[in-house]
Amino acid sequence: MTDQEALHTYALRLADDLLILSHRLGEWCGHGPVLEEDIALTNRALDHLGEARNLLTYAGQVEGKGRDEDDLAYLRKEREYLNVKLVEQENGDYAHTIARSFLFDAYHLPLMEAMLKSKDEQLAAIAGKAVKEATYHLRHSSDWMIRFGDGTDESHQRAQRALNELWTFTGELFVSDEVTSKLVEMGVAPDLGAVKAAFDRTVNEVLAEATLSRPEDGYMATGGRQGMHTERMGFILTEMQYMQRAYPGAEW
Amino acid sequence: MMGDQNPITEERILAILDRVKDPEIPVISLIDLGVVNGIDVSASGAVTVTITPTYTGCPAMDVMKADILTELGNAGIEDVRVELVLAPAWSTDRITEGGKRKLKEYGIAPPETTADIRALKGKAPIVECPQCGSEDTVMLSAFGSTACKALWKCNTCLEPFDQFKCL
Ligand SMILES: [Zn+2]
After folding, report:
1. B143 and A126: CB-CB below 8 Å?
2. B99: which of A78, A211, B24, B95 fits an S-S bond (Cβ 3.0–4.6 Å)?
């Protein structure tokens, strides 16, 4: 694997996490439990999508085959998407949606903070824009985790159930492989060990305040980073890619 | 080529850009907003305007780009490129004092404090109601009608209002 291939793959992984999470959050549009949260989730979806666009554009430039953000977002096949399985999981109830975002935010913020020091100028610049938004997002999801956990019996149970169901998808966020090792060595990608330590701190702190318990680390689902997804992924792409597949090159 | 009476200068372009408004907040200009990173005029009169996005996903950036081309075109400046760059990153600290005043007059509470990341992690700031000036206000939602705004309510005059998020 060349440096260029590693960087292209890495940028796609970062982009796909945000693209797919953005799509999931967008599904809440018009269905939020209250107006403010409906707006919050679509705002978050927009932030994630913006970051994904920057990363996809960059991934296309690094690849050097003339693919732009739209080609990469709309015209790849399922096995070519490199997002973690966590972000493709269904919305479920509101606790489930919030827990999924909370676990992602707790990883994404320290990742972006560390990325500010990347030797790759474009990744550092993208992180420079993303880091404040990621802080804002983590505050939103943490507030809700605490409200649910420390709320009624019902909300506590639902938040705990969501955590228990999603926990198996958190391990994949911190798996190193040939791509990350190469880029960490080059000073381009942050070391995932340090990101994991920050993730643990945030999760432990927020769950303690929320009176929720941290699930035990058991079997961890992986494969998303290699393009192996859960059955939910096909449904997402079917909806997301419909327009470009039906009307190739459509713009408005 | 333009005649000598109308040379293409940075000052002239700056004045024209001050007429291009934020498409979502039509009272403040791109200069007030602080999104213009640089203006470059080459010896042959080719103009490059560099702008930086306010928020990562801000859909207004494409409109701003088009509006810059239109407004400069109206002034007879046709050879223009608008480039979008991410660094140095925009923050609400770049909104001018004039811009903050115009936001307030329009009914949007300006960003209250420094955009330093430490301020984001601290406790909620005091935001003055743009309608009645009361400081007895409360945030209803951290997310508002556009990517750049949060939703607040005034406990004194009971009116809801937008606040420009401090990022
Ligand atoms: Zn008031």
Report:
1. no
2. B95
pTM, full prediction: 0.90
Classify B152 in phi/psi space as left (phi over 0), alpha (psi -120 to 50) or beta.
Answer: beta
ipTM greater than cut 0.90:
no
* Contact status, residue A72 vs residue A15, Cβ threshold 8 Å: yes
Domains and CATH numbers, chain A: 3-246 (1.20.1260.10)
Return the domain boundaries, chain B: 10-90, 97-164
Which residues are near ligand 1, the ion (C-beta closer than 5 Å)?
B 129, 131-132, 134, 154, 156-157
Of B57, B88, B120, the CB nearest to A47: B57
Nearest residue to B164 via CA among B154, B155, B145: B145
**CATH architecture type of domain B10-90:** 2-Layer Sandwich (3.30)
- DSSP, collapsed to helix, strand or coil, labels residue B82 as strand
User: Given pLDDT bands bounded at 50, 70 and 90, which one contains residue A252?
Assistant: confident
Q: With contacts defined as CB-CB under 8 Å, which chain A residues touch B89?
A: 125, 128-129
Residue A149 confidence (pLDDT) above 80: yes
**pLDDT tens per residue, range A155-192:** 999 999 999 999 999 999 999 999 999 999 999 999 99
